[in-house]
Amino acid sequence: MTAYEKPILDRQEIEQILSTQLGTCHITELEPLTGGNLSRVFSFRYDGRAGVIKLSDLAGAYDTERFVSKLLTSHGVPFPQCLGEGQVNELSYSILERLPGSMLIDCTDEQKQAQLPELIRILARMNEVPVDMTKGYGWIKPDGSGTSPTWMAHVESFFAEDQIGNFWEGWYDLFRTTCLEKSVFDECYARLLHYVPFNEPHRHFVHGDFHPWNIMSSGDRITGIIDGNCVYGDFLHDLDTLRGTLGGLDVVAAYKENIDALGIIIPNFDERMLGARYFKGLDAMRFYAKMDWENAYYELRDSLINLIN
């Protein structure tokens, strides 16, 4: 299995998609954007407005984008409005409004620290979006329901050997062809299964990729959240993702300060955070291996092994 390469589409074809979907021939400033591990992303302007188009050759890559956009924006979460989606040849595409600002990762540590309280409030608001009108856990389908009956079922299917038609098809080859070590993976997976029962009862909207590359900032305030691998599950998965990607900032302490001020008690907090850390960590380990990011792999590997004694 080789490192994943993002899809390529001719510039004129992209302009044609945008003109057709948006009903205008005035597409200007079409430029590629950095970021996006699995999507090819372009920014553009049309009729005085800013937008982005994402392209992927992964089946169903953007099937839930419109549902998620409507769900979050209708409950005050700053998320891009979905302007259109479709497919051309073997590529799926999604067109969204472009949020102002740049990625939070580009801010200084001082700027990140100053924006952390606002970011925690947005995280809490997103995870409190009502989901009782839907059912199921795991991946969110276009109709808003989850693909799995339980969180355990989602975990088992997510790390199953047999994956067809998605990014992880044939991923067991990584144990043979990359730095991914099966003995280490199996040990951490066993630990994950130990903590799943603590996460299992909690069903919320989970962004799934809540890190500073998917958080937009003006430099002094958060302007919105983008992308996501959205699921129904324990909201602490998003907190753990943020904890692991904001460097030296004490994200967990800031989160606890916020919930303490609101008088909220979160049961089994430590156990649920460990369940989240092993779930996200195992996925990141195999991702780093597939992308040939060996330094990142070994750093994460060591942290997961030493997480508990």
UniProtKB/TrEMBL annotation:
It comes from Paenibacillus taihuensis. This is Hygromycin-B 4-O-kinase. The keyword Transferase applies. One of its GO terms (molecular function) is kinase activity. It comes from the Bacteria. Residues 30-239 form the Aminoglycoside phosphotransferase domain. InterPro entries: AGP_Transferase (IPR051678), Aminoglycoside_PTrfase (IPR002575), Kinase-like_dom_sf (IPR011009). Transmembrane segments: none annotated. Keywords: Kinase, Transferase.
